[in-house]
Write a structure and sequence with these properties.
elongated, Rossmann fold, 17 helices, six-stranded mixed beta sheet, 551 residues, six-stranded antiparallel beta sheet, single chain, alpha/beta, 15 strands
């Protein structure tokens, strides 16, 4: 419930603090005293857009704060906790508005966006203003009212979860079907590409290996000739190197014992000789391994040319990417081969979900259809009570495709003058008729919905007498289990109040300001009498006011 509303520097309100009681709170006052300003201020705490023109003193900001008492079971508790906003049993909403029009919103001192504030406030206050009846024209809202009266909200919640799973699975099926269709169209070409790559069977790092082998085979003749000449020069020929070095070593050996430096030099000569023998041996080995192979050379050239063609065809950065491309295409073909199996599995899952969803949707439909006659009867009886004896209300329900709320299309129809022609509410009902119809419907479903604080801004416009009295009775019935705050000009309604607040104008330092006071006892009697007969009510009117308050 709304406990307190604090307003600073808003329009003609310099500073105001209002405490609200439980039950039915009535706000009265002369036209222009500031009742609509109060509703505007409250609307800002509910997420309405700020207007810089409503900032009173442009040298300071406007601050509006609303304090709500919430039950532990209220949905907003979990919602705020999920948003990491500290909350216990109070929710404090604040709007700060600069003269420039810039505004900030806070919930329990935590900054929130306007969209978040609107989401939270919907769980705190239901603000119904005069002619604000677009909601009643919404088929979604109409269905929700019917479901609430049918005690089907828990079933609707279960159905909603199931339908969400059905919808998600349907998306998966559609996406997989689309992918399969697209893949099938490209399959033949991609398979051709894959066959090319598999025929090449390129290996990572192969390009370097092949280029080295190709380089060797290309120069094999020259390599073989040069190696043979070196080998002959080492061992044979007119002046072979190895025998010459051996002869030199022998000559040194014959005199090494006579010169102390020669033995070391002889050892070095021996090392050189051994190294040269190893070189000659390695040269012979290499020479034996080098062969001129024109066939292999042709194969290498063809393979590299094939790889180069595919490399350019696929616009790759390096030849090694051919291997990656082959793996990727292979996976695509593999996925495609299993997609049909996956689709079949998903379609079976979808069929099972659809069957269950249809079953729950039919249960919902049964509850709705069973409730409609009683809701129509109760609504039409209450419409007569609130001054609309010729009006008739009817609910039409038609079969629809499976959707998030079942398989029904619910429409509220209205006939204002017993014409027998029922039309959608928004087409035939006036603003006043819609307002009273909204009150009637909310009174019938308030006990079935976890409805927030209800606020009615002059919903009684255009009625008087017995109709106004019955509107007051309905409001009083709603206020038994819900806090109800209403701005009214009707004494019959004001007389039902648990708390009566009076809005007035006062002059402070040459400026007009809005003030508010709680009326009790004789003050309240006088105020209701003045609503009945003007500024100076007679004793009879005062007595009538007292009698009205007792009723």
């Amino acid at each position: 419930m709304l406990q307190r509303l604090c307003i600073q520097n808003y329009a003609i309100i310099a500073q105001l603090e209002i405490s609200f009681s439980e039950g039915m709170v009535i706000i009265t006052g002369e036209t222009g005293a500031g009742k609509s300003i109060l509703m505007g201020a409250l609307g800002l705490t509910l997420g309405e857009r700020a207007d810089s023109a409503m900032v009173g003193d442009k040298g300071t900001k406007t601050i509006i704060e609303a304090v709500f008492k919430v039950k532990p079971t209220n949905k907003i508790i979990q919602l705020l906790k999920n948003a990491e906003i500290d909350v216990d049993d109070e929710v404090i909403v604040r709007r700060d508005i600069q003269a420039s029009g810039k505004s900030r919103a806070f919930v329990n001192d935590t900054p929130v966006s306007l969209a978040q504030l609107q989401q939270y406030s919907a769980l705190l206050v239901d603000l119904h203003q005069q002619f604000d009846t677009l909601e009643l024209g919404s088929q979604e809202f109409q269905r929700l009212l019917l479901d609430a009266k049918a005690d089907a909200l828990n079933l609707l919640s279960d159905y909603g979860k199931l339908y969400q799973g059905f919808a998600q699975t349907q998306k998966k099926v559609n996406a997989l079907r689309s992918n399969i269709q697209k893949a099938e169209q490209e399959k033949e070409y991609k398979l051709f590409l894959l066959n090319e790559l598999e025929a090449l069977n390129w290996q990572s790092g192969e390009e370097k290996i092949l280029e080295e082998e190709l380089n060797l085979l290309t120069h094999a003749e020259q390599i073989k000739t040069n190696l043979a000449k070196v080998s002959v020069g080492m061992n044979e020929g007119e002046q072979p190197i190895l025998p010459a070095v051996k002869s030199l070593i022998t000559q040194l050996q014959s005199v090494s014992k006579y010169q102390p430096q020669l033995p070391d030099l002889l050892n070095r000569f021996d090392s050189v000789y051994l190294e040269l023998k190893d070189i000659a041996s390695d040269l012979d080995t290499i020479l034996d391994g080098v062969s001129v192979d024109d066939q292999r050379l042709d194969q290498l050239n063809q393979r590299l040319a094939f790889a180069q063609r595919l490399f350019k065809k696929h616009a790759l950065v390096s030849a090694d990417q051919l291997t990656e491309l082959q793996v990727s295409l292979s996976k695509e073909m593999d996925v495609l081969s299993h997609s049909e199996e996956d689709l079949e599995k998903l379609e079976k899952e979808l069929a099972a979900l659809n069957a269950k969803a249809v079953e729950l949707a039919m249960d919902l439909s049964k509850k709705r259809k069973k409730t409609i006659p009683g809701l129509e009867k109760s609504t039409n009886e209450l419409l007569t009570r609130v001054g609309m004896p010729n009006a008739k209300f009817k609910i039409d329900i038609e079969h629809a495709a499976l959707n998030a709320s079942g398989m029904d299309q619910v429409s509220f129809l209205f006939d204002a003058n017993k014409s027998g022609k029922f039309e959608p509410l928004g087409k035939v009902a006036s603003g006043g008729e819609l307002s009273r119809l909204m009150l009637v419907l909310k009174s019938l479903v308030a006990g079935s919905l976890e409805m927030p604080t209800l606020i009615f801004d002059e919903i009684d416009s255009g009625i008087s007498g017995e109709a106004a009295k019955q509107v007051g009775v309905l409001m009083d019935e709603i206020s038994i289990s819900h806090q109800l705050i209403a701005i009214t000009h009707q004494p019959q309604i004001a007389a039902k109040a648990d708390q009566h607040l009076f809005v007035f104008k006062k002059e402070i330092d040459g400026k007009i300001n809005t003030g508010i006071m709680e009326l009790k006892g004789e003050e309240r009697v006088v105020s209701i009498a003045q609503m009945m007969a003007g500024v100076n009510p007679s004793d009879a009117v005062l007595a009538s006011a007292k009698e009205m308050m007792k009723g």
